[in-house]
Amino acid sequence: MKCYTQVYVMNSLEAVEHYCRAFGAEVSFEIKNEAKTEYEHCELSVKGEPVLAVSEAPEPYDVSAIHKMRWQTMTFNAFELGSEAAVQKAFDVLTEGGLVLEPIHQAPWSKCCATVMDKYGVCWWIAI
Question: Of the residues 40, 72, 81, 100, which has the maximum number of CB atoms within 10 A of its CB?
Answer without folding.
Answer: 81
